[in-house]
Write a structure and sequence with these properties.
By secondary structure, the chain is α/β, with parallel strands linked by helices. The protein is 24% helix and 27% strand. Strands 1, 2, 5, 6, 7, 8 and 19 form a 7-stranded mixed beta sheet that branches. It has a 5-stranded parallel beta sheet with strand order 10-17-11-12-13, with helices on one face. Strands 14-15-16 form a 3-stranded antiparallel beta sheet. Helix 1 runs parallel beside helix 7 and helix 5 packs parallel to helix 6. The longest helix is centred in the C-terminal third of the chain and has 21 residues. The two termini are 18 Å apart. The protein binds NADPH dihydro-nicotinamide-adenine-dinucleotide phosphate. The site of NADPH dihydro-nicotinamide-adenine-dinucleotide phosphate (NDP) has 17 residues, from helix 5.
Length: 309
């Protein structure tokens, strides 16, 4: 079996940037695409805050561009997800859907996936009024009434951010107890545009037939009373899940599964670097993911050069 110089896990902004850099350095990286090829950007519409695109760029197009750029320099791509990683000794051994891949260095750019409610109607309307990213999509709902789901800091932060655009932001939370920090909760409570629906869950997002969000059907969890709330957008603020479970017991991670790194991208295993949302619970932007992807690639280059590769 061939031993690769570098394998990159993940094909989002971070992984593809690492691929671009290592490819351009002549390392012929192999990108394992993962279960959400293209990462979170491929789920958004217009990206207006990625530098270099004054008119904005569609998320999927941006991803496709970086992918082409990496391919041009010799990056290779493999569909599939890593099921097992043996990092105890180098070269590292990966099991990609049953196929073995061996590599001298590894970049973990497996990202994080937004937590969704899991409703079919929600899924059908992603990108048409259902979003998990206020920073990406808030702008499109200027002057509209919208909902933010969740009771943690993410939900409060999204709701506060969205007040810049929306006429009203209704926070829908499934209980009366909030996980959000006191300061964030207070800030949201004091905001004139923010309204509250507690002890309620969304049962359905309408209107799939029209391909736009027109309302949600809510259910009060105490008495099962149901009602419809007219609305133009639903933002999920119920957390993210880093895609790192395959590295449990091998790489250090915090209690929520975010990989812990030192000097930005170094994991505790020599030759394994982590970048993007898998190790960043704080910024989670396309540009910061690209930034740490670049850092990881430069460290791979340095390591392999030191080893005479
Ligand atoms: P949290 O886990 O703190 O909160 C998630 C919220 O979503 C909870 O209110 C939870 O409800 C609700 N929720 C989860 N699943 C569902 C579901 N299926 N249906 C309805 N509601 C659901 O996640 P966050 O992303 O808010 O925060 C993660 C971490 O990041 C925290 O440590 C937070 O402090 C930090 N953070 C800090 C920020 C800041 O300081 N500026 C900004 C954003 C995040 P329930 O409580 O009932 O379980």
């Amino acid at each position: 079996m061939e031993t690769r110089n570098v394998v990159i896990l993940g094909s989002g902004c971070s992984g593809l940037t690492a691929a671009l850099y290592t490819a351009r350095a002549g390392l012929a990286p192999l990108v394992i695409e993962g279960h959400e090829s293209g990462g979170q950007l491929s789920l958004t519409t217009l990206v207006e805050n990625f530098p270099g695109f004054p008119e904005g760029i569609q998320g999927p197009e941006l991803i496709d561009n970086i992918r082409q750029q990496a391919s041009k320099f010799g990056a290779e791509f493999m569909a599939g997800t890593v099921r097992e990683a043996r990092l105890a000794e180098r070269p590292f051994l990966l099991n990609v859907d049953g196929e073995e891949v061996r590599t001298r260095s590894l970049v973990v750019a497996t990202g994080a996936s937004a937590r969704w409610l899991g409703l079919p109607s929600e899924k059908a309307l992603i990108g048409h009024g259902v979003s998990s990213c206020a920073t990406c999509d808030g702008f499109f709902f200027r002057g509209k009434d919208i909902i933010v789901v969740g009771g943690g800091d993410s939900a409060m932060e999204e709701a506060l951010f969205l007040t810049r655009f929306a006429s009203t932001v209704t926070i829908v939370h499934r209980s009366e107890t909030f996980r959000a920090s006191r300061i964030m909760l207070e800030r949201a409570r004091e905001h004139a545009k923010i309204k509250w629906v507690t002890n309620a869950v969304i049962e359905e997002v309408l209107d799939v037939a029209k391909q736009e969000v027109t309302a949600v059907r809510l259910r009060d969890v105490r008495d099962d009373k149901r009602w419809e709330l007219p609305i133009s957008a639903v933002f999920l603020g119920i957390g993210h899940i880093p895609n790192t479970s395959v590295f449990k017991d091998q790489l250090d991670m915090d209690e929520d599964g975010y990989l812990l790194t030192r000097d930005y991208v170094f994991t505790r295993v020599h030759g394994v670097f982590a970048c993007g949302d898998a190790q960043d619970r704080r910024y989670r932007q396309a540009i910061t993911a690209a930034g740490t992807g670049c850092m990881a690639a430069l460290e791979v280059e340095k390591l392999l050069e030191e080893e005479g590769r």
